[in-house]
Amino acid sequence: MNPVPQKKKVIELVGIGMSPWTEKAQWVLDHHRVPYRYREHTILLGMPVLSARLGLPPSEITVPLLIESDEIILDSFDISQRVDARFGGTLIPSEHGPEIKHYNILCDLVSDASRALMIERLLKDPAAQAQTLPPFIPGMFRGPFRFMSRVGAAYIQQEFNTTRKSPYEYGMVMLQAFVGLSAALERAGGKYLIGGGFTMADILGAVAVGGLRPHRRIAEKMGPAVLKCWTSEELEDRFGHLLEWRDWVYQQHR
Ligand SMILES: N[C@@H](CCC(=O)N[C@@H](CS)C(=O)NCC(=O)O)C(=O)O
Questions:
Q1: Whose CA is closest to 150, among 229, 73, 87?
Q2: How far, in Å, from the CA of 9 to the mean position of ligand 1?
Q3: What percent of the chain has pLDDT over 70?
Q4: Are 201 and 106 in contact (CB under 8 A)?
Q5: What is the CATH number of domain 11-86?
Q6: Ligand 1 center to residue 66 CA distance, Å?
Q7: Pairing state of beta strands 36-40 and 65-68?
Q8: Residue pLDDT, tens place only, 77-91
Q9: How far apart are CA 70 and CA 187, in angstroms?
Q10: Smallest Cα–Cα separation from 155: which of 115, 188, 202, 125?
Q11: Which residues 6+ apart lie within 8 Å of 47 measured at CB?
Q12: What is the rounded end-to-end Cα distance, in angstroms, of the chain?
């Protein structure tokens, strides 16, 4: 008798296409060529369905999240660690674990600052508000429905307390992180941050540099006004070398 065929487990990643946290987790999955299904999360509107599906209160849910069978992993770095460990640990070699965790903190600080600044800019820019509406809203309604983007932005502002620092202070967080990253890169010889080869540190550094200006891969998912909201023009010139490095890392490894 033939055994009953097992239903193939499909890994699912729920994320937000323009989010640096999603980019981090997705890069690790793609690097290891893991087959998975990607589902775009719609801020606010998508939460009731996600919450019902996962059996978790909305307050406990952030994206990206990875669903595999009955297991849910709710943090981008936890997803990265889990996926990498299963596929040989080449991105996070154990001897470099602590250093890589440090780069994750740097990446989180920059992502948190760039999200806060992006929301500040979005709330002042009607064109960006129209461009961030979900794709199912038809063109003629995008103007009148801009308020939905403002509600979504206010929700993120409250959920992640993004007004706890002033824009100036967020700018300083980014500046300090990029000064540190520049020094680390120079110390390491200008190519890879740790050990002379590609690791999770380079993914985290490259994703963090997205706080200056998103990479083309992410930028092409946005309208021009939204891209402007995600761009820190006042820092771009000073850290042009980091943008060049980031583009090189993407070209080689993404
Ligand atoms: N520590 C988390 C943070 C992720 C995070 O802040 N995600 C935001 C992206 S803007 C989110 O889930 N927002 C959607 C929501 O709260 O509905 C991680 O690394 O995955």
A1: 229
A2: 25
A3: 97
A4: no
A5: 3.40.30.10
A6: 13
A7: unpaired
A8: 999 999 999 999 999
A9: 44
A10: 115
A11: 58, 61
A12: 45
Q: How many CB atoms lie within 10 A of CB 152?
A: 20
User: What letter does residue 64 receive in the DSSP assignment?
Assistant: S
Structure confidence by residue, pLDDT tens digits, 138-181: 888 888 899 999 999 999 999 999 999 999 999 999 999 999 99
Evaluate if residue 4 carries a pLDDT over 70. no
Pocket test for ligand 1, best of 27, 47, 62, 229 (most atoms within 8 A of CB): 62
Alpha carbon of 130 to ligand 1 centroid (Å):
22
Checking if the pLDDT of 104 tops 70, the result is yes
The confidence score (pLDDT) of residue 7 equals: 57
Burial 44-78 (b: 16+ CB within 10 A, else e): bebbeebeeebeeeeeebbbbbbbeeeebbebbbe
Mean residue pLDDT of the chain comes to 95
Q: Which residues line ligand 1 (CB under 6 A)?
A: 16, 19, 21, 43, 47, 62-64, 75-77, 115, 156, 159-160
> 113 CA distance to ligand 1 centroid (A)?
13
